[in-house]
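Feature request, filed as a ticket because there's no other form

It would be nice if the structure record came with a short human-readable summary line next to the tokens. Right now we just get the raw output. Example of a typical job, pasted below so the devs can see what we mean:
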Amino acid sequence: MRARDAHLPWGGAARGPWALEVTPERAGWTYAGLRVLTLPAGGEVTFATGDEEMLVLPLAGVATVRCDGLRLDLTGRASVFAAVTDFAYLPRDAEVTIHGSGRFALPSARATRRLSPRYGAARDVPVELRGAGAASRQVNNFCAPDAFDCDRLVAVEVLTPGGNWSSYPPHKHEQDRAYDDGRVEAALEEVYYFEVAGGEPGDGPVGYQRVYGTADRPIDVLAEVRTGDVVLVPYGYHGPSMAAPGYDLYYLNVLAGPGAARTMACVDDPRHGWIRGSWAGQPVDPRLPLTRPGTKEA
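Raw output as currently delivered:
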């Protein structure tokens, strides 16, 4: 993949009702996808999920989702920096109507099993503080493998305080492999969707995302990202995700792969894995957590 194809600025991948549409075909892979929907007050869109399972995740707004005769009311949030949100799960082969106001992410994955539509409550989202010092970040594991059942789809949110690095040390998940030292890696495609505090889609302050490959699978990306931008990670080491001082950084990770079991298994770049050991004894950034279920925007 060429670097210019890996970074999709806001507005460059719009199609139909979607302000952003990344299908597996658009990304050049097989499983993972992402759509972003922007609805005016009282707006509505109806669509079919086809062979993909999806989530409806409010980024900023509220919505009612109808699927398979079931109504799911999403309380949502004022912004990704305001609160942990509730969400809805949509199975493959379903017709869906979303009615509401705001901006919504729809992570997706090609699925073989058809599960039931259902509601994910904000209060049930596991919130993890990861790393330490300037590598501290918050992970909202709303659709992690052990938090919410899907066929293939995995999705989490990461919030990084201004000046910190996350997705660090750099890691990869491009092959199914068990290493002699006990590490396990899974083959996963990944989408990063970004928002920067104080920004609007396509405008405002920036963060940065690094992706780099190995000698046999080269890729070289250093993307300046604004609210609404996407970076595709088909393979290679990715990280750090860099939050500029003064501007908190949010990203939504969408992952899917061919494995029979859902996983986020990855391995660190061996040149930088030692950094994890340096966190021992360092405090987590006191600004964390940035959000909790039901918190209000400052």
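Something like this underneath would help us a lot:
The mean pLDDT is 95.
Residues 3-6 form the longest helix (4 residues).
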